[in-house]
Each structure stands twice: as C-alpha cells, then as structure tokens.
Design a protein that fits this description.
The complex is a heterodimer of chains A (513) and B (356). Chain A contains 19 helices and 22 strands. Chain A is of the alpha/beta class and 513 residues long. In chain A, β21 and β22 form a beta hairpin. The radius of gyration of chain A is 24 Å and the shape is globular. In chain B, the strands form three sheets. A two-stranded antiparallel ribbon of chain B has the order 1-2. In chain B, strands 3-6 form a two-stranded antiparallel ribbon. The two termini of chain B are 25 Å apart.
C-alpha cells in the first residue's frame, strides 16, 4: 500500500468556530482501495474534518490534495462532482420525496429538460438491488425505517461514481444483519478501488472491516495506524488519552439487592398501557432506585413505550399510577408534574433548541415548569449551569455559545443536564449513548448508577445489550411492538439469553400477557 | 492595529450593522439633496424638523412591528394587523363622534378602552385559531385581514367618520416635553414589551417555541398558551397604532387606515434580523427596521420622486438592504472581490453607533 500514491492528502488542516478550536493542524492520508477508520471521542474533530473535506466548512489553514491536485470545495455538490461522496451521521435526505427522487435529486435523467421518470425508477431499483434492498422506489422515503433510509443514502453516494466515499456513523441506526449487509457492500467497493473513510463508535466494526485507523483527540492528530498493529485497548487509550477502568468497576456496583426494591411501593405502574398502531398494551412497574432496561431490536417499540410513559404520545388504552395513586400521563406537562423526565433519542429534533445557548437549553424544562412569569434569577441559572457543565464535563465549558456548535456527545450531556436540574424521580433515557464515544459513554453509564443509588428510578433504553445488562436491575424485552417478557437481571441472565428472547419471543419464566 | 481590525470585524458582523449603515446612508443622501434636512428648530416650545417627523410617523409602524416580532419569533405571522388598526381606530372615532362634547377627556378614554378591548378580542380570535384549532398562522390571520376591513366598514357604516376632538387628536399629533406624544407612546410600549419579554422568561420561551416546537413541547412548555399570548400582544400593539393613524387625520376610514402596514411591519422585523422561520428575535432590530422604512418613505416624498415610481424605488432599496445583510450574499461578493471596497473611516465608525 505504501508503494501507491494516496488518493487524498490533507495537510495541516485547522478550523475554528466561535469559542471552539475544532481542528488544529491535522494531517490525514487516504489510499485507493482501503477502508480507513477515523476514530476519536465526541468533539475530537472527526465530523469537522469531514465537513472541511467536503466543503461544508471552509478551513482556516492547510491544504487538501485529491489525486495529486490541490482542491478546495465550496460545497458537497462540488465535492461529489469531483468524486467525494458523503453519507452523514444523521440521514439528510428529503422524507417527503420518493426513494427514487432522493437518489437522483439534482441529477435526474432528462430528455429536453423533462425528467424520464420510468428510467429513474428503474435505475433506482437496480441500484438498491445491488444492496439487496427490494423496496418500492416510488414510495415516499419517510414511510421507510431509518435503516432503509440510511441504505438509500448510501446507494445515492455510491451512484455518484465516487473515488472517495465517506460514511459518517452509518451504522448507528442499523441492526446486526443490516451492518453485515453494509460491510459486504463496503468490501465490494474497496475491491473496485474506492477509498472509504469510515467513522463509527463501534470498535468491533472497526476491527471487522478497517484496514487502517487514524485517531484524533481534541482537534489534534494522535496518529495513523494499520488496524492489525493496534490492539483495541491501545486504540481506546489513544482516543481518550487515559487508562480506562471505569467500565469494569461499574459491573460490580450495579448488582444490588433486588428483593428490597421489589418490596417497596412502585414509583410508576403502567397497566395494559397501549396505543393503536404504536405499541401493544403492556404492563411495567418501576421502583425508586431501580434501573429498568428496555431491550429489543430497532423498531421493536422501545421508544414508543417511553413516549407513552412520558405522555409524548397519548395512550388510548390502559392506566398508569404514580406512588400507587392513579395518575393520567396525558401529556408531557402532566408527566413532568409527576417528576418524570425524558431524554429523547433524537437530540436535534426532539431535544435541544439549536440556536439557544447551552445555558438556556439547560434551564428550559425548569423554567417551563415555573411558568414564564417567574424567571429563574440569573445568578441561580449560572450556579446550576456551572455545576452541571463541570459535573458532566460539557465541552467547551462556555455556557453562552449556541448548543448547535457542540458535538453530539456534549449535546447529549446538555439534554441530561436539563432534566437533572429538575430533580426528577424517574428519568427515561432513550439511547443516551448512541453516537457517543467510549469515554462519554462510560461517564453516562456511571451517572446512571449514581443516580439510581441516590434513589432515582431510571428507564434505560439502548440497542447495545451489553450496556443494558451492565446497568439494569430488570430487563424488559420488546419484540414486534410488544413487551414480551421481563427478566430479573441476576447471574442467570446474559447477552445470549436476552438475544434468544428477542429472537424467539419466547421466555423461560413467568409469562406476561 | 490588529485589535482595532478585530473590533471592526466584530462590529460589521453584528446583525444590525448593515441596516444601521443603510439608515445613515439615507440620512446623508437626504442632507446632500436638501442641506437643511438635519436641522431641528424650536418653535412655540415644540421641536420641528424632518428627523422629528420621521420619528413621529414611524411610531405606528414601530408599534405594529413590536407585536409582529413576537409573532414571527414563534414561527408564525400576523397579516391582520392592518385591519386591526382600522377597527380600533373606527370604534374609537365612532364612540367620540357620539359624544355631546367631543373634547371631554372621559369620553376619549372610554373610546381608547373600547379600541383596546376590541383588539384584545380579535387578538384572542387569531390566537385561538392558531393555537387551539391549529390553523396555519398565515391562513388564520388572513381571515381577519380580509374580514377585518369589512368589520371596520360595518362600524363606520361605510362612511368616513370625522371627529373634532383635541384630546384624541393629540395621540397622533400632540406634543409632550417638546416632542410629539406619539414618540413617547411608541417608546413606552417598546420598553414595556422589552420588559415583559426580557425581564421575565417569556422571551426565551418564545424563542424556544419558534426554534424547535417539538423539543419545547417535550420540555414541558405550554406552547399553545405562548402562541395565543403573542397574537393578543400583536393585536393590542396594532390597536394602539390604529389610534395614532386615525388621530393623525382626525377621521376613521375603514378602507385606508393602516393599509399595507402589515407588510411594512414584516419587513421591519426581517430587516431587524429576526428570522421568518422563528427563534431568536431582536426588538431593537425591529425598531431600527421601522425607522429605516419610514426614512425611506420620507425620502421618497422629499426628493419629489414621482408617485408612480416611488413604490419601485422603495422596493429596490429594501432588496439591497436585505441582500447586503445576508451572510451568503456577502460571502459571494467578498470571494469575487477579495479587496475591501473602501477602507472604513473614523467618521463611519462613530456614525454607525448612533442609531444602535
């Protein structure tokens, strides 16, 4: 590989945002026919580097050479025309257009200006067939799952005759089979000589497919390594810059006395709660100080359960009670009134207000509960915000910058801080660690343990079984929009058993309707 | 040198910099055309001059613009403010015209209370359509924009009601402490709106609702109430502006009063840097925008630009201001011409701070 010329060379790239030095003299090389993993914590500069490459951002200093020629793109369209295609972390397609339109938008096959719809649909079908995806391409994209949308985005990127394909967190919303499908495509493209930049937080995936790894930390280059020469532990250490033993110590803490918990009055009890077209009626109890994990595949109804309990969606079936007394959780305000908090998995659309500052986002829920006539005194705001910016190590530690300038992991922490200052008794966390690096993930897991030790009830939703197993006292398993069983998380439960339950829908003990 | 350059860069990046420059440029152009433009004279204890006129005539637009700013910040729009002006002016004039003594202060105060009361009801109607029934703001307020003119006509019975009431007239052309009363009213309402939005949490909550409605709902904000409230505030602002418009001419014309003021108000908000998509809003920006628009109108009259072309002239200036203000346009311009067009002088620097 060293004998060949790199297809892409980025040299001494620097980029600053107001209050943030996102990239500081970063070098990056990419060879044809390799899968190159770009690794780093949240805020390390991965996404910024990619946006500089594709011209979404202009860089302050440094040079970019593509196939020996110096380039400086003014936007993704220009980059794509030069053979640099990107599939972004958050699917950025138009949900209100058809699948075929999304794939060919801006470059539709035309005759005399008129679009040849038939050919467009046929080509879209062929393209998706290469990815083993057989769907109706004339349907609106929004009617398909996030995973399918991701595949469509990839199909679109591949079809632009890319020399460099950038996959920014493509797998965070895919399940195991879909990931395998994607890897098959990536290998196929690699054989064709396409260079792939692969950004992910899943270490196993890096070792499953990447040829080389470049690690960034705090906007600086740590190094470039062949995958085979960099063991996992060494990689994690390079990413976070310190030894990591937090995760191991967590395992001991979370195994606590279940019997005592179960004997107390449950904080929240849902009986036959359900909503047509969303999730089948389910029953669930959560005690103070208990972490209930919600496991299941993508689209199995985990989020829907959380939304019903928070009143984000209105239940059309069943009852809820808080502290043993009936309590209708009709809307978020009612749920918040009962000290329930909900961190949505979609931080950007359902969590934060991007243009408001970190401070304003943190105090938003507390202020909403007080009503606008009783503003939180500025000094109190600053105290609270300071405390949580420190406690959760939110970076950059400037509470006055717009929250949209923060990286994904830090945005997640801001959302957590918003709810923590309201001192909830039940915290619902929907995929709090999705798209987050190892260090921040460990911090959030540690926080969950601390909070439940302090008597807070937590409903923890995650696609990662290991995480659910590590933190939960009790695991509720979802399958096909039904809560199929509850497992007490004792020594008999392991990932295989939960996996089996998810796969088969059957369970070994105490069946629930 | 580099620090002053950095400071200059910070000043030009401010969202109100270009509107302020445009305002100063207009004033300069007027002064060149008519050297006496900037002079302000004291006559009979009153200040007279073009600048005073601009402030006085801009007062209704500032009022309507303040309410419009809050509505737009929630992601909505209020097209009915022009009709609201006509309605509140009509009901006030009708009441005064029925008094035996039109100069009695009590009758005028009741007239003003009636106008405000009716504005509250109509604002509540708009607010209910948008926040409770969930009609798109542009459609919901279009109803009153059209029907409101009819309502004003009904109140005046199709006639132009003329009145002869000194206390009412003073709302439009009266003086207080050497300056027109209208300026004090506009300034008072501006301070009140600023206090209500920025001294409480209302401003931030409006910005949250406009910035991300779903996230705000999930954070427990009663966004329906907030939305309802901003339409009521907007209607009351328009109602007060309606008094000024009708007091200026001592008559209520259901067709002409406040005609097209909604478009000027929306323009003032946009020039002031508040996005039509909602979110962050700037009250001082809207005031600056309203002053710019009124200065432009005055300029058109003062320069004897023919009435046929005056609207076109106004449109061209507005387009230029909006383009220059847009970062995307400036970036393109800067890329084509890397050298700065003209070095800023000290005079420019001191001037641009005046209106801000």
């Amino acid at each position: 590989m060293s004998g060949r010329q790199p297809v892409l060379t980025m040299t001494e790239i620097s980029k600053s945002f107001p209050g943030v030095r996102a990239l500081d003299g970063v070098d990056f090389r990419l060879f044809p026919g390799e899968v190159h993993a770009l690794m780093g914590e949240n805020g390390a500069g991965k996404s910024t580097l990619i946006k500089v490459l594709t011209g979404v951002y202009s860089h302050d200093a440094g040079t970019i050479e593509l196939a020996g020629q110096q380039v400086s793109f003014t936007g993704p369209m220009q980059a794509a025309a030069a053979g640099v295609s990107t599939v972004y972390q958050e699917v950025n397609l138009c949900a209100n257009l058809s699948v075929a339109e999304n794939i060919f938008i801006g470059r539709e096959p035309r005759t005399l200006g008129a679009i040849r719809w038939g050919e467009m649909r046929r080509r879209a079908r062929d393209l998706l067939a290469q990815l083993d995806l057989h769907i109706d391409v004339s349907q609106l994209l929004g009617t398909y799952s996030l995973a399918v949308q991701q595949m469509v985005a990839i199909a679109r990127a591949i079809d632009i005759q890319a020399r460099v394909l950038i996959l920014d967190e493509p797998t965070s919303s895919l399940d195991a089979t879909e990931v395998e499908q994607l890897f098959r495509i990536m290998r196929q493209l690699r054989e064709q000589g396409i260079a792939i930049i692969f950004v992910t937080h899943f270490l196993d995936q890096v070792y499953g497919i990447a040829d080389r790894i470049t690690v960034l930390r705090n906007g600086r280059l740590v190094g470039e390594y062949p995958t085979a020469e960099l063991p996992q532990l060494a990689l994690v250490e390079k990413m976070i810059g310190k030894e990591l033993d937090v995760l191991e110590s967590l395992d001991e803490q979370s195994k606590r006395d279940l019997a005592a918990l179960e004997a107390s009055t449950p904080f929240l009890q849902a009986e036959e709660l359900g909503r047509k077209g969303s999730v089948a009626p389910f029953s669930l109890t959560i005690h103070a100080g208990e972490v209930v994990g919600l496991a299941g595949l993508l689209g199995s109804g985990r989020t829907e359960v959380a939304r019903l309990l928070f009143g984000a969606d209105r239940a059309d079936h069943g009852r809820t009670s808080v502290d043993g007394k009936p309590a209708a959780l009709r809307n978020p305000i009612a749920a918040i009134g009962h000290d329930i908090a909900f961190c949505s998995e979609n931080r950007r659309t359902e969590g934060l207000v991007g243009e408001l500052s970190v401070r304003e986002n943190i105090i938003l829920a507390m202020q909403a509960a007080r009503g606008w006539l009783r503003p939180i005194p500025r000094r109190r705001q600053d105290e609270l915000v300071d405390k949580y910016v420190k406690a959760l190590s939110i970076r950059p530690a400037d509470p006055e910058i717009p929250v949209r300038n923060l990286s994904g992991g830090n945005q997640q922490k801001v959302l957590l801080a918003r709810w923590l200052i309201t001192e909830p008794r039940l915290l619902i966390l929907d995929e709090p660690t999705r798209g987050i690096d190892v260090g921040a993930k460990a911090e959030i897991q540690k926080l969950v343990v601390q909070l439940s030790d302090g008597g807070m009830a937590v409903l923890f939703i995650s696609a990662e079984l290991e995480e659910v197993l590590r933190l939960s006292h009790k695991i509720a398993v979802m399958r096909d929009r039904q809560l199929v069983t509850e497992l007490a998380n004792d020594h008999t439960v392991d990932a295989d058993r939960v996996m089996q339950t998810i796969a088969s829908g059957t369970h070994h003990e105490g069946a629930r309707a | 040198m580099s620090t002053s350059k950095a400071r200059w860069a910070a000043v030009t990046a401010h969202s109100l910099f270009w509107p302020a420059v445009a305002l100063v440029a207009l004033l300069v152009a007027n002064t060149i055309y008519r050297p006496g433009f900037l002079t302000v004279e004291m006559k009979d204890g009153h200040l007279y001059g073009s600048l005073v006129d601009i402030l006085r005539l801009a007062a209704p637009l500032i009022l309507v613009g303040l309410g419009m700013t809050l509505v737009i910040a929630t992601g909505g729009i209020d097209l009915s403010v022009g009709s609201m002006c006509a309605i509140s002016g009509a009901i006030a004039c009708l009441h005064i015209s029925q008094q035996p003594d039109q100069n009695a202060l009590s009758g005028v105060l009741v007239a003003l209370a009636l106008g405000i009361g009716l504005s509250l009801v109509l604002g509540a109607w708009n607010g209910a359509l948008v926040s409770i029934i969930g009609i798109q703001p542009i459609i919901a307020t279009l109803i009153l924009m059209v029907a409101g003119r009819g309502l004003a006509q009904l109140i005046t019975e199709g006639q132009i009601i003329t009145i002869n009431s000194e206390p009412y007239k003073s709302v439009g052309v009266g003086y207080l402490l050497t300056l027109p009363l209208a300026i004090f009213i506009a300034a008072g309402v501006a301070l009140l709106v600023a206090a209500v939005t920025r001294r409480t949490a209302l401003g931030m909550i409006i910005e949250a609702v406009g910035g991300n409605a779903e996230a705000s709902r999930l954070a427990g904000i009663r966004s329906a109430r907030i939305t309802f409230l901003v339409y009521v505030i907007s209607a009351v602002c328009a109602g007060i502006a309606g008094f000024m418009v009708t007091a200026n001419v001592s008559s209520a014309d259901g067709n002409a009063a406040g005609l097209w003021i909604e478009l000027d108000a929306i323009l003032a908000v946009v020039i002031g840097g508040t996005s039509l998509a909602g979110g962050r809003f700037s009250l001082s920006g809207t005031i600056l925008g309203a002053l710019l628009i009124q200065t432009l109108t005055t300029t058109v009259y003062a320069m004897n630009i023919s009435p046929q072309t005056s609207l076109l002239f106004k449109a061209v200036v507005v387009i230029i201001v909006c383009l220059v203000q847009a970062p995307a346009f400036r970036a393109r311009f800067a890329r084509r011409r890397p050298v700065a067009p003209a070095a800023p002088t000290a005079a420019d620097q001191s001037k641009e701070q005046v209106p801000a």
